[in-house]
Amino acid sequence: MDCLRNILLLSCLFTSVYAATVSHDSRAITIDGKRRILLSGSIHYPRSTVEMWPDLIRKGKEGGLDAIETYVFWNAHEPIRRQYDFSGNLDLIRFIKNIQSEGLYAVLRIGPYACAEWNYGGFPVWLHNLPGVQMRTNNSIFMYEMHTFTTLIVDMMRKENLFASQGGPIILAQIENEYGNVMGPYGAAGKEYINWCANMAQSLNIGVPWIMCQQDDAPQPMLNTCNGFYCHDFRPNNPNTPKMWTENWTGWFKSWGGKDPYRTAEDLAFAVARFFQKGGSFQNYYMFHGGTNFGRTTGGPYITTTYDYNAPLDEYGNLNQPKYGHLKQLHDVLHSMETTLTQGEVSNVDFGNSVSATTYATKEASSCFFSNANTSSDATINVQGRNYTIPAWSVTVLPDCKTETYNTAKVNAQTSVMEKKGKDKAKKMRWSWRLEDVEEMVMKGRGDATFSKLVDQKEMADDQSDYLWYMTKVNLDQNDPVLGNNSSLRINCTAHVLHVYVNGEHVGSQWAKDGKFNYVFEPTVKFIPGVNIISLLSVTVGFQNYGSFFDLAPAGITGSVQIVGRNGAGAETAVKDLSTQAWTYKTGLNGFKNQFFRSDRSSSGWSKSNVPTNRMMTWYKTSFKAPYGTEPVVVDLQGLGKGTAWINGNNIGRYWPSFLAGQDGCSEVCDYRGSYGSEKCRSNCGQPTQRWYHVPRSFFNPKGKNTLVLFEEMGGNPSLVRFQTVAVTTVCANVYENNVLELSCNGKRISEIKFASFGNPRGECGSFNKDTCDASNDAVAVLTKECVGKERCSVNVSEVKFGASNCGGAANRLAVEAVCTI
């Protein structure tokens, strides 16, 4: 017993020694009384794998982050009411402990509404189906469930001593999420609800502050914060709340049919620097690593499987250069100024034409920001007898108010060119196949439940599958006016995708386009006298995740269904409404129910001969060897239509390479100057929205047989499928004089310096050229000696190293393109 007491005493002492007091004042979050400049990045644990977490978190730390932020995803953890899942990549405790092991802080956004382009915003659909529930408002049923789940998460964290007040890494927690953007239509009940949220959260006594983002009327002591592309002008609603930015959108998400988004490193750094210039002290990147929407986790509707987000770490966990490196340099500078930024007296000078200077001064030191928000004109200002030139749409940072250490428009970090590589003579995969059995539905109209109405898919399928059959039988007299060659079936639809069968024959498919999820599909149908079986397969592609009352957005076939008769001239002669007659329902498909995707399932029923192509509702299976090496792996699904893919039983997500991005709106040249929006600097026009799909290395059997299973819903050709690895093939840099060139081939070796020039080189990576002046030393020879044969190299960029140029006093730059060993 004495031994046990000693162990408990030591445990208490350990906790008390390492427990931190997290508070705040008007200037900053304070930890143990010290004001902090905190840089955070969002990494969502379900969008990667357990095996990836340590590397992602370590790269966040090496990139200058102090904290990792994540949402908690209610529907992932409680897919069925009171049945919880915290296994695999849902192991939230393990993820937080990984953060702790790297010495970083954690920001836990419990919500439990997340948005996050996640299915149904993170709400479980069973919540919607509770009798009498109204979500995100003053409704006792909803609030009871929200309180239950929030308390569950808090208790889990507390049990593992993960709050900073217990010695853990969690310094902030969030309740609700972006409610202020949508609360107007909820009226007084919305205000009552947000007050309840604050009181409920505070009653949990977690020992660290609670935040509410985008909540201008956040009740005290909640800290309201900003989300957006820019938050420099944000002001919290309480003078004792520091200026905090919980979502700095590093890029944007992709939707099926959409183009590739891109936010430049220069603009993102500009937004960060201006935020700290104007008094910010906590900033979080959304996303720092976006990752992958595995399985059925995407929201939207129509959010893609990739959630790369153009983040500093790409979908696979590679450094997205130059964004990662350019921000890392800014982070280092901001951390060096922590004392002056959080304690210094602030003064501002307006030079006009969107040019300003801000000084933070203590008795010991001063730090300065010079910003130029003009979108076209560079500016030269004189400060304390010195001239400084600030490029348009940039911020210059001077930690000592004298020497320019960093400018957001001058990117010195390397650019990494990532390519997808595969063996030129890869062994052709041999496929087996089988058809999805739809006979019971399309020939007999048999299901599991019958109602005399059309039922919303959320209510009938309860989010257990993307697929729901709506089936009915119509008995037509031989003289019925809806019979004839020009008859049609008119379906007022909110199905994301719709497949229509009549009397066992597929008569057409349709899907939502241009963001319009309420449409009419009217295929021509030849009905017969007697019994006609109408079978409609409704397919969801992620439920709505944002907006006022988003949870009520209809899904499935919720409008009218009519048979329309016409005469020879095409004029309507009769309309028969089927909406209120008996409809039979069946959730899911047989292949999913029988788990055809599992690699340990029997091959019985699969055929290896006459493999069909472009056939709907078909399962394909093949075996293959895992790609050699350690580089990230993708599977190229070019040639397929739409469906789902599994590797060794692991669902890598929905695929839809046949859905092409629009032809217009892409930018050949991207100018970082001027405000960024999600439509700026788009690319990939006319190409598959998503062709490559991430396969984490942990999904493979590295030495044994691997199985790929595809369910092809619309029809495609599996013979074009192949696996590739993603690797750096070329690295480039364009470094200003008196900075350091840093090149890295990410584990490979630098095999050649393809181009180098010190002076005023022109062009971009892959198309550099020498211009009017060039240094006296052979830059290629210098860098060949310094870098070739190494995985990484660092070189001071100066005339001492590269010789004098003839640029007439203008700032010299070193442009270099290096080849990485393949």
What features would you describe in this structure?
Helices cover 17% and strands 30% of the residues. The protein has 15 helices and 41 strands. Strand 12 (345-352) and strand 13 (355-361) form a beta hairpin. The longest helix has 20 residues, at 140-159. The radius of gyration is 30 Å and the shape is globular. It is an alpha+beta fold and 822 residues long. The model is unreliable at 1-17 (pLDDT under 50). It has five domains: 2-320, TIM Barrel (Alpha-Beta Barrel); 345-410; 418-435 and 592-726, Jelly Rolls (Sandwich); 450-587, Galactose-binding domain-like (Jelly Rolls, Sandwich), CATH 2.60.120; 737-820, Rhamnose-binding lectin domain (RBL) (Jelly Rolls), CATH 2.60.120. It has an eight-stranded parallel beta barrel with strand order 4-5-6-7-8-9-10-11, surrounded by four helices. Strands 19, 32, 35, 37, 39 and 41 form a six-stranded antiparallel β-sheet that branches. Strands 21-30-22-27-24-25 form a six-stranded antiparallel β-sheet. Helix 8 runs parallel beside helix 9 (323-336).
